[in-house]
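Hi all, posting the design record for the shared folder.

TITLE: backbone redesign
STEP: 1 of 1
STRUCTURE INPUT:
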């Protein structure tokens, strides 16, 4: 699929690429995401995509989940993935686990937005920033495909953004979870493209 990229009206979201979520030493390592990142060389692909995006003038925004000690932002009735995170103290602000992985540290002109749920728009000023900058097209990357990527795609499409999921710059707990979302859910909310194809268009 070919799309017309307007760099000044486009942004890349890099979502939840954090130590607790996506490293072998992280408190959420049991999810298996770090194994998928290694298997598919996800960080290398995201880095190449971000380099090309920055060069072309796209805004890069990192979405980082970070909660206060004890996770007061989460209801006691939170769904299981949040409850599991609370039990192990994952994503706690001020800890190594809440930091973005070393391989993907933000650059000088990138932005970082803190969020509290799988929806990058919920309880954040992401929408306000995008609209203030005239952004219409969102390229989605990060972890996990069937959680933050899918939730953000759904909501972003519903409030009027053009959604482009960069398939090989996303990953999930297992190949099966990633593929199901990529093939069955995400195409209903926007385009699903490979990073190499987008990079070629950015160069033209």
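Okay, here is what came back for every position:
SEQUENCE:
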């Amino acid at each position: 699929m070919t799309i017309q990229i307007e760099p000044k009206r486009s942004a890349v979201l890099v979502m939840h690429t954090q130590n607790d979520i996506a490293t072998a030493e992280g408190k959420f390592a049991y999810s298996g995401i770090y194994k998928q990142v290694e298997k598919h060389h996800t960080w290398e692909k995201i880095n190449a995509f971000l380099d090309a995006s920055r060069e072309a003038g796209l805004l890069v925004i990192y979405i980082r989940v970070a909660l206060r000690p004890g996770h007061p932002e989460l209801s006691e009735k939170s769904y299981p993935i949040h409850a599991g995170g609370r039990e192990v103290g994952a994503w706690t602000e001020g800890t190594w686990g809440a930091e973005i992985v070393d391989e993907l540290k933000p650059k000088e002109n990138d932005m970082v937005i803190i969020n509290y749920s799988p929806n990058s728009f919920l309880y954040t000023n992401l929408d306000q920033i995008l609209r203030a900058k005239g952004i219409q097209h969102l390229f989605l990357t990060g972890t996990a495909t069937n959680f933050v990527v899918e939730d953000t795609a759904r909501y972003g499409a519903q409030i009027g953004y053009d959604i482009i999921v960069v398939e090989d710059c996303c990953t999930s707990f297992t190949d099966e979870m990633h593929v199901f979302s990529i093939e069955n859910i995400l195409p209903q909310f926007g385009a699903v493209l490979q990073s190499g194809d987008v990079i070629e268009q950015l160069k033209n």
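COMMENT: Residues 42-56 form the longest helix (15 residues).
Let me know if anyone wants the other runs.
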